[in-house]
Amino acid sequence: MLAVLTSLAFMNPRITSYFSTYDLQNKLRLAKMVRIGGESTARESIEVDPTKTYQTILGFGGTFSENAAYNFKRISPAMQDKVMKMYLDPKEGANWSLLRINLNSCDASSKVYTFDDAAGDIDLKHFSIQPDIDNNMIPSLRRVMQLRPDAKIMASPWSAPAWMKDSKINNHGKLLPEYQPVWADYMVRFVSEYKKNGVPIWCVTPQNEPEASWQKWDAMGWSNKDLGDFVHNHLAPKLRAAHPEVEIIGWDHNKNNLERWAKDTLTSPERKKDYQGIAYHWYEGGEGRFYEPLDKFAKMYPDIPYIANEQGLFGTFMLDAHAAELYATDILENMNHGAMGWIVWGFFFDHLGGPNHAKNPSHTPIMVMSDYKSLIVNPTYYYIAQVSKFVNRGAKRVACSAPTGLLTSAFVNPDGGTVVVVLNKGDNEAKVRLSVGQAGGELVVPPHSLSTHIVGK
Q1: Count of CB atoms within 10 A of residue 424's CB?
Q2: pTM for the predicted model, two decimal places
Q3: Rounded to an integer, what distance in angstroms lies between the CA atom of residue 205 and that of residue 77?
Q4: pLDDT tens profile 80-117
Q5: What are phi and psi of 72, to 5 degrees?
Q6: Which one of 326, 331, 354, 399 counts the least CB within 10 Å of its CB?
Q7: Are the CB atoms for 408 and 423 separated by under 8 Å?
Q8: Residue 57 DSSP code
């Protein structure tokens, strides 16, 4: 395969190619994959039209949960710097610019905690984010902001404190109606305290997975009507008054029920104004497939952007190339179906997928061994970076067609360069003509590879 790649005459300095392969023999490797000039033997082509544009890209990233902070606290400062740069640095790393964090604990936390456990404290006199200072969340996120001042942080609650719920337990039940105003105050207070501590919040979602009222982990169920009422009557007006720059992103559950939620919630122009976007997950059989709900939502509400904000693999999947191809498929399909961004579940779990108080171990692109001295860089890291590193915030997705067997997506960055991403999940090399406006040439795509081609800059 490498002989084929290196034998091609790299005659056009305006086309730069990088690729990663399933077997980890190639990791964001700069390669001579495009031949310009001469007769092409390729029968099929990838056609990119940079003049036909679609959604604007916000960015890519991961979930920085409390167990990531837990693991960071236990590694050396040098290793902390290395992991942060690998994820966040635009030049040396994967250029991640989006982070999702938990408001109160979640399953990806070392233990259950909230910021006010004083039952009946409707004035929140005992509210404190000290737990997130002590557990290294705030210090870690400050480091994120130092490295990436433009990072956007999404905060999602898994559960209100148990004393606000009908069940009086963390992983089951619903918010009692009388505590809706207090819970809105609590969320606004969280945003205020994080901001005071140097971690600005870009947006909040009202509830992680509102249809899941009973889980092994932190959970709180809502009907679509009740959650819509809570946002409209309490959260939106209070958040706007205190922090008008902070957005509300709705839904935050599986994409298969997105249309139903929208019909129940976005029932008037006033209620639509409560939300600056919609977030969704890939579960319930939708992992790496089933994108019709996004198309339907876009037709119903063309003025509301949406983002894939939780795509997780439960189980460690260490050095698993299938996981990498699954994530790459999902990123490109989400982009091709109009998503403004993509956030993978997790950031920095240990090699057992935790710690996780709910015994729900998960995969992350970079993991740490239990000795806290050695890292595992999974294929998913390189496959995600094949997109996130080269497609910058503000890029526009553009029209792109490809032959059967290849999955592609194309973008024009703010600097004018065109980025074409090509996923080949087949066992055979593919040879195609790459056409980007008036530029292009013959492209050789290795089997089981994800390649990125930058044209024009």
Answers
A1: 24
A2: 0.95
A3: 32
A4: 999 999 999 999 999 999 999 999 999 999 999 999 99
A5: -60, -35
A6: 399
A7: yes
A8: P
